[in-house]
Amino acid sequence: MAINLIFLIDRQRFCLSNILLQDRSNRLLDLLDQAGRQLSIVFMDDQSMAEYNFTYRGKKGPTNVLSFPAADLQAGLPPELAGNELGDILISVETALCEAGKNNTSLHRRITELIIHGTLHLLGYDHEQSSRQAMVMWEKEQQLLTKILRIPSRRTTMPHLAINVDHVATIRQARGITEPDPVLAAGICELAGAKGIVVHLREDRRHIQDRDVLLLRRTVKTKLNLEMATAKEIINIALDIKPDMITLVPEKRKELTTEGGLDVIGNEKKIKNTIKKMSKAGIPVSIFIDPDATQIEAALEVGATFVELHTGRYCDAETEKERDIEFRLIEQSAELAFESGLRVNAGHGLDYRTTTRIAALPFIEELSIGHAVITRAVYVGLDQAVREMLDCIVMAG
C-alpha cells in the first residue's frame, strides 16, 4: 500500500475513520501526480508530538503537524537504494481536535488540511521562506482541499435501504377500507431487498394504525423502525411492542408530512426522559434532526444512539448551487456526528435522482425512503420500485 496510516492513539476514542483518511490521502497524491509514492502518516497525542517538536525543532510543546522528507534521510544514496519514499508526516490528533473546535469544523476536515500541508512540505513547499512562498503554499492547499472535498468519498459498504410504508396506509385510510395493506407492502419490500421497514405512528392515526404496528412487529424479518413523537400514549405502545429501534420526530397536527428536524435543544427534558425509558427496555433511539452542529451536540447530550439527518432541503433545492450547499451541510454533519460517537442515518424527500449522492457519504448507515418508492410503485410495481432504488444506492459505490 502506497500510504501507510499509523495510529499511536486510540482511534475509537477520536472516532477516526481509517477508510476516509486513506481515501483522501490517496486522492491527494493523485492530484499531486505522486500516485504510487510511499507515504507514512502517523497519528499521535500531544505529548508524543511535543517530544518530536523539541528534538527536531528545538521548540517546546506540541505542534499540529511535522514533515520529514525521505530525501533528507536518503541523501547520498544511489537511486536504486533511495527507493520511492516520499517521507513521513506526524499529526497530533489532540491539537487537530482543538483547532477544529475553534474553527467550527470537523476533525476529519482539519486532519485532511494537515495532511495536505505536510505533504506539500515533503514536496519542497515552505511557507517559512518568505511571505510570497507562504501565499503560494496556502493557495495550493486551498485548491487541493476544494478538489478533495468536492468528490464524495468512496465507501466499502453501501448504506442499507429502509422503506417507509406510511403512504400505503394513507391510500387505505382515504377510503376507510382494508386495502392496500401496509403490512403486506412491507413484506414485498423486504423480499425485494430492503433491509428495514419504517412506520410513523402519529397521535391522530392519520395513516398507520395500532393494528399495523402490532402485525409489523410480528412479521418484519429485517428491522422495524417506529417513528414517533414524545407523547405518553405512543411511548407506552413502543415499550409494549419493542420495535428494533425508534426515531423521535417532530409532529404537527396540520402538516402534510414531517416538515423539519426535531428541536432537541428546545425539547431536551422530554427527549431525555423518553430515551431513558427506551434504554431500560433495550430499544435504541434515533433522533430526526436538521444537519446542524448544535442539534448534533444536543442529540449526543440527551443520550441518543443514532441521528437521522433531514435531507429535505437538499432534495427540494431549486438550483444546483443551492443543492451543493445543502449537500455540504449534510456531509459535514454526518462526519461531525460520527466523530462525536453517534451512528448516522439520513432521509426525507430522497428520490431516484437525489439518493445516489447521499448514499456515497461514508458515515451514513441507512437511508429511509418512502414517498418516492411508493409513487414509483404505481407505475412499475412495488417490488421493481424497491429494486430500482437499491440500484441508485449501488451506483454510489
Summarize the structure in words:
The mean pLDDT is 91. Strand 1 (3-7), helix 1 and strand 2 (38-44) form a beta-alpha-beta unit. The protein is an alpha/beta fold and 397 residues long. It has 18 helices and 12 strands. The chain is elongated. It folds into 2 domains: 3-150, Collagenase (Catalytic Domain) (3-Layer(aba) Sandwich); 160-394, TIM Barrel, CATH 3.20.20.70.
List the helices and strands and how they pair.
Blueprint: E1 3-7, H1 18-31, E2 38-44, H2 46-57, E3 65-69, H3 70-73, H4 79-82, E4 85-92, H5 93-102, H6 107-122, H7 131-150, E5 160-164, H8 166-175, H9 182-192, E6 196-200, H10 210-219, E7 224-228, H11 232-241, E8 245-248, H12 268-280, E9 285-289, H13 293-302, E10 306-310, H14 312-316, H15 320-339, E11 343-347, H16 355-359, E12 364-369, H17 371-380, H18 382-394
Parallel strand pairs: 1-2, 2-4, 5-6, 5-12, 6-7, 7-8, 8-9, 9-10, 10-11, 11-12
Antiparallel strand pairs: 3-4
Brief overview:
The chain has 397 residues and is of the alpha/beta class.
**CATH architecture heading of the largest domain:** Alpha-Beta Barrel
- Name the CATH homologous superfamily of the largest domain: Aldolase class I
Number of helices: 18
Give average pLDDT, whole number. Answer: 91
Number of strands: 12
Spans of at least 5 consecutive residues with low confidence: none
